[in-house]
Amino acid sequence: MMRINTDDGSCVYPLFGCTNSTANNYNPNATDDDGTCIILGCTLVSSKL
Question: Which domain does 25 fall in, by range?
Answer without folding.
Answer: 13-41
